[in-house]
Fold each of these.
Amino acid sequence: MRESAATVDLSVRVYTWLLAAYPGSFRAEYGNHMAQVFRDVCMRDFRRGGARGLSSLWARTSLDLLRTTVEEHIERGIDMSREKFVRWSGWALMAGAVLFAAGLILGSFDPSDMDPVGGVDAFYEISQVVGLALGHVLFVIGLLGLRSGYAIRSGSLGAGLLLLAVIGSVVSLGGLLSMSSTEAAWTAWMGGFLTMTLTLAVFGIVAMRRRVFSRWNFAPVLAGVGLPLLFGIGIAGVDSVSGQAPEWASFVAVALTAVGLILVGYRMQADAGTTPEVAA
Amino acid sequence: MAEASITPESFLPLTPAVFHILLALADAEKHGYAIMQEIEDATDGTVQMGPGTLYGSIKRMLAAGLIEESDDRPDPTLDDERRRYYRQTGLGRRVLRQEAERMAELMALARRKHVWAVIGSRSILT
């Protein structure tokens, strides 16, 4: 008798804890009643079938919990207003810039970057992969938010450039994710990233003319010139011995891109709700 | 919600959960556990509603005006805990009747097509 009460109590406690998965308003209104009903059914099923009865109840209840929490959340809806999306996208752009830069910088410490992932340099290799992949995903989200929030203020040219930047980021991400398979993937990654940064740089010029942001309209130019500059330095001033652009150039390019994107992201989340378009 | 402006037909067809809950409340007001118990007994255990499905449906039925809250009181057959009772509204009664009529028409159609037959007290699919 005491054992059955303790078993039922434990089940109810676990079920009550799992009710946290439901939306707050639903839980506030019905949580206690649901726990009460579950207790009643628990006691009945334990009385009828012991531990087996309780197991069967938990199997049914788990499925019920899983299905109905999803239903309730979908019904509540994700009220993602444009303002919220732009604000979150701003944070995504900032986070993406940090991860991207960290991934590239840590990856540069990998003494042998052509070996398989693993071994003593695993930390640098994994950091590079994770940083670049996550960074690119966040770039896509951030640029979508940038276009969503500022397309109208930027005019048709600015809106078109932002769209191109989004497309470039998506292509770059696709190339990065399939990089191990073909050389075309490398081309897609670099080409997409170049498109993204070049169009951002040109958008920056539009932003400065039209005063798209409340402040720091030069930020997209900063974000966009890094990589093209690197290419330019690589073509014009290649180290004749190694055949590669000097390392400091890579660092400057990464830093410029990251700082520029962080500034753009900061402006997006700061301006959200204060500018007419974003607040609409 | 003005019941007169909403037609029962607009709620059809009912989901199984809503139908069973309305049916359980057809004869008397009940609390959540009693609704679950009645549904399980009436269907010989084939329909076992979890608390999430029960109260998700109750929430939507309350919003639609098919049922209403009665009061909170203990069930003397269970324990001293206060339980929230529910009852059908007039709209809920009309909707349940319409749904039952709709299902009866479908059954009659199945019988005419010789898909369904009743032999004695047992129904079989032919």
Note: The first helix of chain B runs from residue 16 to 24.
Amino acid sequence: MSALSGIRVLELAENVAGEYCGKLLADFGAQVVKLEKPGCGSPTRRLGPFAPAGEDPERSGLFAYLNTNKHSVELDVESEAGQAALAQLLGKVDAVIDDHNVGWLASVGLDPAKLEALYPALVLCSITPFGGELPEDRKHAEDLTVFHSSGWGYHTPTSPDTSLPPLNAAGRFLPSYEAAMDAALCVVAALYERDEKQLGRFIDISTQQVMTSRCDYVVAQMVAGDMPISTERNAYDLAGPAGIFPCREGYAYIWMSTPGHWAGLREMLDDTAWMDEFPENWLERGCTPERVALCREHVARWLATQDKHEVAAAAQKLGLVVVAVNNGRDLQASEQYQYRGYFAEVDHPVQGKALYPTVPYQLSETPARIERPAPLLGEHSDTVSDILEEGAA
Amino acid sequence: MSSQQRGGPLQGVRVLELTKVWAGPAVGKLFAYLGAEVIRIESEGSLDVTRTFGVDDINNAPGWQSVNPQKLSAQVNMKSEEGIELILDLAARSDILVENMRPGAIGRLGLGYERVREANPGIVFVSMGMWGAEGPLSYQTGYAPCFAALGGVSALVGHEPGAPAGMNLRYADSTFGAAAAYAAMVALFHKRRTGVGQFVDVSAVECMTSMIGDSIMDYALNGVVQDCDGNRHPELVPHGVYPVRGDEWVSIAVRGEEQWAELARSMGQPELLEDPRFSTFALRKENESALDELLVAWTSELSAMELVSILQRRGIAAAKSLSSIDLVADPHLWMRGFYRDVVDHEGRAKTTLGPSWEMTRGADLHDAAPALGQHNDYVFGEVLGLSEEERKRLAEAGITR
């Protein structure tokens, strides 16, 4: 039994944000029933990466990843019959996750404004790019445009070449994953209170706000008037030589901000004559652009001859912070990830076996677990009648 | 039971923070914003660097203020055994303890999980480390950009394949905090149902990998190591950030045939729809550079507002890339109450960030971050029930300093 056993969640979501939220709950034992459009299923079934084996709609690795432990029920909630079934289901679940556009919930009979009257004990969570009140010029959004509406985009990467455009986040869906975490947190918090008071609530997650919050240390200082705001693309940055440098193979990231780091660097390098021109505390008290450039030049020359993993291990011992810039292969090979079991083998009936990334937290009593692969489309369509009959008895 | 009645789903929950800098305090902030009473334990001898670094007044330190609204501050000298006993007494009256000290430090203080559990078997003990609490690399430490580099995030951000530049260096701490908060919340839920507490071990590097899970799945299924590729996207084209007048930028993402047709019409170039280079999705991907060049020529002549409004009217996702001025001035974030005023320890209004959510019966957010020891009396008097005399003795002996 895991922590959320006995909780029943209806997932109306059809995008990454809502499906990841559902996964966060399902991996802790909640029964997450995913309603999918008959015939084609969730749109995420048509997004890559695709497994070499299998055929549509069962070969999406994205869907397989996002929907572990869930149940799939084919039901068209946009049809009249579907809405009648949905209305019955809503009385028999604890929480609902949605990530459709603003207004969609009302169109299927679940208007958040009427939630208290219709389903007073239901926790309803909606994840949308800008929250429930939507300005005209923000009706259409994708993860890229939300990322750039949050302040992150304009300031990515650090120390940019300003002749090049600002960049997207890592991967396709980072803002969606981030929003899903806040959504899952709020849903379980709401269920916590509901356990005692039998009261539900509407939760309106704005992905723009989630992403802006992820830089709260900086942005809160800016809105308080304690940190300068500007049109500079390095407005979030810190001065210093930190950055990513090429190694013999791949890349390493080096961080330097204290005299201790500087002393560590001196021990690592063969040629240290150039360092004698620098004050020992320059990283804290004399970080001029000229010194930063000269330091970066020497660090680049040195790291280009190093193995990223070996140099990182050696630096850690000397109090200098160097780490490998890892990729997917490095992560699967990581002894630390293997020790913690971060990757778990999942046997999907169509796609076969693969090592899935799991969750970043280990709970000693109620660990998250992948008990079942993502469902085939409609695999649990019978569950609906079970749920409906349960209450009728 | 907390004396703080601010509403919200977690009213009555008490969280003890033994945290530093940003990621640990982010956990307490999320709990405070959900209505919990969050107590930061502070020691005059080892104050948080965000209170002190480059700051004149530790009680008005901007960095400190940004991630600690609505929390309480109580001072305990953690170098004294009596101070450690006080913290254990507080832990006995708390639901959650969060720590993000250097690896092993909490145990050396005498506040490791085993000892805290003796004081409170139901405690949810949240330990946050770069690599998590155990394993061959758990001794290593680093800063946020290290988490992003190690976790696979940095490799996916860069203008050209094979030249990673990484996310902005501020990325990772708050994400780490959110993941830890969710795990703690689940453990708290379990505690309410069963009375059983547990050890929650959160890895910052794994948090980063979880933000690119689908990219990692490509390696899992196909052995493909994904690389950075500017602003390109496998399913959307065009997809990028384009220059507009006045050195500004607009992000645009076009999905499907219908939106492509709307884009060509928006550009006043419907002939592009007949252009053999762009007639299918696959061809547009193949000729994406040529398409981007045409788009840049068009967007460069427009203002950000004109471009966004033209595209939005036609159903295409477009948004100005917000500078820090734009972000702080964003009318939508003000209208949502995301930017809002709290009241500091001297009664002055201070603007800060509210939660990322709105919810029915949400918690009030009223107080700015606390001054050092602002809540000593409440915490030692009301929570621990110590007499005034005893509190005076502890203060004079330097235990609550």
Note: Residues 173-194 of chain B form the longest helix (22 residues).
